[in-house]
Inverse folding.
């Protein structure tokens, strides 16, 4: 079977997420990435241009990967769906751990690297908008208070997920506690 | 006037916080720190041993620095005091920006550096315990709901501060919005 260009781009980006999750953004050297992805350095430059271009596409790719574990068929209760979407980011699976570690590392790097700020803000907005849409659906179904502003609640709850995820991944909080606190915050914000 | 040893240690640690906030943990080289602090490299090794020892003491020092802007005389309303203590971490002053940037960077580094995990957890606990104590005082004064569990609310609200602070410092959210969302979350959690 032929390996298509999108497949090859995706497998390079999967490898980039793994390298960042293992060694940080500083550890992402084109040579190491080529070895991890099993491709030539030339092919990486061909697809992504410079390192900044690679990091930008990696941020988008992390969002796409997250979509693969969050975008399952919505359950019948739209309020529960909001909770499900947020809690999926706090799971002890390799997939979530790798994705969240790489996402946190890219966020931390954006504090120092101006080139990453705009793509980070754009990728964050995609996620926040998805949660806001889920809250709006739950509100229309009557299972979220009418006083809640979906855009603000989504901004707040996703920032909380990031804060809790960092505590979990850096060993300051158990995953069980992070999940319990998030559930409580969702109830406090939406009910 | 004689410069005392604690003064000199503190000025080295202040310099370490500034270097980390400017260049990240990776930018913290003993040579650069010596230049920033205006001391010899030998003195840094003398006071802190290796780089891991320096990073551990820097984490504690960030907490001490935060105490200098949070530990002002408590106002008469203990519920407002909880809000004040949390909101002080989201302020556009050089002091808070430098402190929060260095703290976020050390947290991000702890995901990859096992040596930092225990000192990070210990420093985080000091801060969370301080907020939990303020919530307990407000609860005793009757201005926080009796159903609130101070330790859990403090864990949640400080993790939220970290999430919002990262969004602000990485340019994904305005400071005004971060502060407004935090105020709303405090009300939702405590009232």
């Amino acid at each position: 079977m032929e390996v298509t260009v999108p497949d090859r781009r995706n497998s390079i980006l999967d490898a980039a997420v793994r390298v960042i999750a293992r060694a940080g953004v500083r550890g992402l050297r084109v040579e190491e990435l080529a070895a991890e992805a099993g491709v030539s350095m030339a092919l990486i430059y061909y697809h992504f241009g410079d390192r900044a271009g690679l990091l930008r596409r990696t941020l988008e790719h992390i969002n796409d990967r997250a979509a693969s574990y969050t975008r399952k068929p919505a359950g019948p209760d739209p309020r529960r769906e909001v909770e499900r979407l947020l809690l999926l980011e706090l799971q002890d699976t390799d997939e979530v751990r790798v994705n969240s570690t790489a996402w946190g590392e890219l966020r931390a790097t954006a504090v120092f690297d101006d080139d990453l700020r705009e793509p980070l803000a754009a990728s964050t907005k995609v996620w926040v908008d998805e949660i806001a849409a889920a809250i709006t659906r739950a509100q229309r179904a009557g299972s979220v208070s009418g006083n809640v502003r979906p855009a603000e609640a989504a901004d707040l709850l996703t920032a909380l997920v990031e804060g809790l995820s960092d505590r979990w991944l850096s060993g300051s909080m158990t995953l069980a506690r992070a999940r319990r606190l998030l559930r409580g915050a969702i109830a406090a914000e939406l009910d």
